[in-house]
Design goal:
The complex is a heterodimer of chains A (115) and B (106). Chain A has no helices and 11 strands. With 115 residues, chain A is mostly beta strands. Chain B is globular, with a radius of gyration of 13 Å. Chain B has a 5-stranded mixed β-sheet, with no helix packed on it. Chain B has a 4-stranded antiparallel β-sheet with strand order 2-7-6-5, with no helix packed on it. Chain B has 106 residues and is mostly beta strands. Classes of the chains: A mainly beta (115), B mainly beta (106). At the A-B interface, β5, β9 and β10 of A face β4 of B.
């Protein structure tokens, strides 16, 4: 069964450093998403991406964040200058279509630890 | 954003049915009802979704009230592997509330 994959599973970085989290969505999916979950808290929407553009973003997704689909398979989340409060699980998701009719399929997540 | 209300936690015995309720009194006519679950240390997992009619798939059933202000996720025979946090979600941006933590006892 096709699945969303994410690398690395755990990333440790120093505050102020740039990190890139990578995701390979399901191959025939067209919409891509990033979420984060701070330990013990809710899953929070960050951004959605379609046709090489951001379609929606939350207040969390400020100028420190960017997303990219550098090739036909990868979808990346970059944090330019990490802060301690960026420590969280980051989940990538993909769906065949946008909107409430279609479910999203999530990856296993990348645990980001900012020291 | 339309919000949902779920009990914080529920408990079930293994191999018994589980009914997980969700209230969504402010649901709009075009809001689909989605259910996801999150097993410990894993990402959310799609379970089922529907609009008006009851839905069945290999994982669960979804019963939707006639006025659509509430729904119930039904796990027909709970297993230990079903212990997770279950989220009822309305908006396509997937606002995840706190969900219901399901504990399954052997």
């Amino acid at each position: 069964e096709p699945e969303v994959t994410q690398t690395p599973s755990h990333q440790v970085t120093q505050m102020g450093q740039e990190v890139i989290l990578r995701c390979v969505p399901i191959s025939n999916h067209l919409y891509f998403y990033w979420y984060r979950q701070i330990l013990g808290q809710k899953v929070e929407f960050l951004v959605s991406f379609y046709n090489n553009e951001i379609s929606e973003k939350s207040e969390i997704f400020d100028d420190q964040f960017s997303v990219e689909r550098p090739d036909g398979s990868n979808f990346t989340l970059k944090i330019r200058s990490t802060k301690l409060e960026d420590s969280a699980m980051y989940f990538c998701a993909s769906s065949t279509e946008r909107g409430p009719v279609y479910g999203q399929f999530f990856g296993p997540g990348t645990r980001l630890t900012v020291l | 954003d339309a919000k949902t209300t779920q009990p914080n936690s529920m408990e079930s015995n293994e191999e018994e049915p589980v009914h997980l309720p969700c209230n969504h009194s402010t649901i709009s006519g075009t809001d689909y009802i989605h259910w996801y679950r999150q097993l410990p240390s894993q990402g959310p997992e799609y379970v089922i979704h529907g609009l008006t009619s009851n839905v069945n798939n290999r994982m669960a059933s979804l019963a939707i009230a006639e006025d659509r202000k509430s729904s119930t996720l039904i796990l027909h025979r709970a297993t230990l592997r079903d212990a997770a946090v279950y989220y009822c979600i309305l908006h396509y941006k997937f606002y995840f509330g706190s969900g219901t933590k399901l504990n399954v006892k052997p």
